[in-house]
Amino acid sequence: MDETLKDSKKLISDIQTQYTRLSKGQKLIAQYILNNYDKVAFMTACKLGETVGVSESTVVRFANALGYSGYPKLQAALQELIKNKLTTVQRVEMANDYSDENTILNKILKGDIDNIRETLEEIDGEAFQEAISRLLKARKIYILGMRTSFVVAQYLGFYLGIILDNVHTVRMDMGDAFEQIVRIGEDDVVIAFSFPRYSKKSFQLVKYAKEKGAHVISITDSLFAPIASESDNTLIVKSNMASFVDSLVPAMSVANALAVAVGMKEKEDIKEHFDDLEQMWDKYGMFE
C-alpha cells in the first residue's frame, strides 16, 4: 500500500506518541501541526519552518523522525487525512495564494497535469483490465456518481451507451436512485465515481448493489474512500483539490480510457452502429 495511504489515519496519534523523543525545534513543529494540520497540509517545508521559527532542514528531519522518506510524503498524508473534512468555506480560505488570473490559470492547469501524471504512475493496470473484462460480460451496467461526480458518470455513460446497449446511468432527476437499481443482480456491474467530500448516497447505493451480488468497480481517489471498502476492484485516480473546485480531469481521462478500451473490443459492432448513426445524422441534419 502507498506510504501516504498507510500512514495518514494514524499520523496525529504518531505525532503525539513520538513527541517526547523529538528535539526542541521538532516539538515546535509537532505542536503547530496538532493545532493547525489543515493549514500545514498546504504549506511548503520552507513556509512551515518560517511560520514555526525553525530551519527547513529541521522540518525535513521532523518528517524523517515520523518515518516518512521526506516532507512531501508527510504533507501528502496530511492532505489525505483532511480532504474529506474541509468545508467549502475552508477550501476557499485555503486558496489565498491565487493572487491574479494568470496565477490561477497556471496553478490549476499544472495541478491537473500533476494529477494525471500521478494517476498514470499509480493506477492498477490489472484492475483496469479486469474492469474491461467485467463490462464486456455484464448483463447490465449501472454507472453512478453523485453531485460533481455525476458529470463524469454521465460522460462515461454516454460513450458506453453508444458502444453497448445495456448501459444505465443512474440519474438524480429521474426518481429515487434506489428505484433505478432495484433489479440489480449477480450478472450486473456497477461503476461508481466518488470524490471528496464523499457522498453518503453513493456509498449506500454501492453497498446495496454489493449485497445483491453485483460486481462493483469504484473510481475514486483513495483506498480509504467509503465506496472502496465495498468494491471488487478499485481504480485510484488522483484528485488533489484546487480550492473549492474538485479536479475531475484525471477521472475524465480514466473514463475516456475505459470507453476506448471497451470500444476496441467491440470494434466491428460499433463500426456498423456508427455507420447507421452517420446516415441518420445526415438525413436529419444533425450537424452544420
UniProtKB/TrEMBL annotation:
Residues 9-85 form the HTH rpiR-type domain. InterPro entries: Homeodomain-like_sf, HTH_RpiR, RpiR-like, RpiR-like_SIS, SIS_dom, SIS_dom_sf, WH-like_DNA-bd_sf. One of its GO terms (biological process) is carbohydrate derivative metabolic process. Keywords: DNA-binding, Membrane, Transcription, Transcription regulation, Transmembrane, Transmembrane helix. The keyword Cell inner membrane does not apply. SUPFAM superfamilies: Homeodomain-like, SIS domain. CDD domains: SIS_RpiR. The chain crosses the membrane at residues 141-164. Coiled coil: none annotated. Residues 131-269 form the SIS domain. Pfam families: HTH_6, SIS. This is SIS domain protein. GO terms for molecular function: carbohydrate derivative binding; DNA binding; DNA-binding transcription factor activity.
